[in-house]
Write a structure and sequence with these properties.
The chain is of the alpha+beta class and 262 residues long. The chain has a seven-stranded mixed beta sheet with strand order 1-2-5-9-8-7-6, with helices on both faces. It has a five-stranded antiparallel beta sheet with strand order 13-12-11-10-14. A two-stranded antiparallel sheet has the order 3-4. Helices cover 23% and strands 31% of the residues. Strand 1, helix 2 and strand 2 form a beta-alpha-beta unit. The chain contains five helices and 14 strands.
Length: 262
């Protein structure tokens, strides 16, 4: 496994080139948030590009949460994309579609049983492995760009905090850090290209094969409301299907999900 000191811009570029991905890489030894850096990059540079940080001090999560890092403990990267070619309807499923691609790529190389917890987390061994966040920016009422960020735990923090997270680098078949960065970035680019082509034929079935919440009693908080039901997959728009106690299905397009403890 690579040490913190051997994780360099060149080591990541080498792995990206092996996969045929030649997008510009902005490498930061330390920054507040790769999403923030990506927003700054978009002001002066063209998308697509990758912004990567060896250490984040204020990584963003959903609902204003912070993603904590030490150097080399997480794969923290953001990808900036132009929105000229992608059908806007596909933006609604961008995060889930990326999650599918990332899980499939990492499963192929590591044989690990990665799963997706709707709407934006990746799980391993029943614990959270990664969180994702997508932001769209507009100018003059026109959608211009999308920034997709991911924080994926690679090894535990030295102090042992956040033991509720799983760490990919501890697994028996783990790749080294730079290889994993390249695989994750390449999966995100692959997702974007498929969404631009409107290639979504297997979206719902692919998600079903990776669904962490499937057939579990789930509570979802959205718009200050809470609804409970049995998770029954997603529809073609990425909405979670909940089977209510009445037997009726209820669609949730956004929110925060949790398994109901019995």
């Amino acid at each position: 496994m690579q040490t913190d000191f051997s994780i360099t811009q060149n080591s990541i570029l080498f792995e990206l080139e092996k996969l045929g991905l030649k997008a510009p890489l902005y490498f930061f030894k330390e920054t507040d948030s790769t999403n923030t850096r990506a927003e700054e990059i978009l002001k002066t540079a063209d998308a697509p590009f990758i912004a990567f940080a060896l250490k984040q001090t204020a990584g963003r999560g959903r609902f204003g949460r912070t993603w904590f890092d030490e150097a080399g403990s997480s794969i923290s990267l953001s990808v900036g994309f132009p929105l000229k070619k992608i059908p806007h309807k596909n933006l609604e499923i961008f995060t889930l579609f990326c999650a599918i691609k990332i899980c499939k790529a990492l499963r192929t190389y590591t044989a690990l049983d990665l799963q997706i917890k709707w709407p934006n987390d990746i799980y391993l061994n029943g614990k959270k492995l990664a969180g994702m966040l997508a932001n769209v920016s507009a100018k003059g009422g026109v959608l211009e760009s999308l920034i997709f960020g991911i924080g994926l735990k690679f090894k535990p923090l030295k102090g042992g905090e956040f033991s509720e997270f799983e760490s990919l680098g501890l697994s028996e078949n783990a790749l080294d850090f730079s290889e994993t960065v390249a695989l994750v970035a390449n999966a995100i680019f692959s997702a974007f290209e498929d969404l631009c082509r409107d290639s979504l034929e297997n979206f719902v079935s692919d998600f079903a094969s990776l669904d962490f919440l499937s057939q579990k009693q789930v509570s979802v908080k959205f718009y200050e409301k809470i609804v409970e039901g049995i998770a029954c997959g997603i529809d073609s728009c990425g909405s979670l299907i909940l089977r209510l106690p009445s037997g009726n299905n209820f669609l949730v397009s956004a929110g925060e999900s949790s398994i109901v403890k019995k």
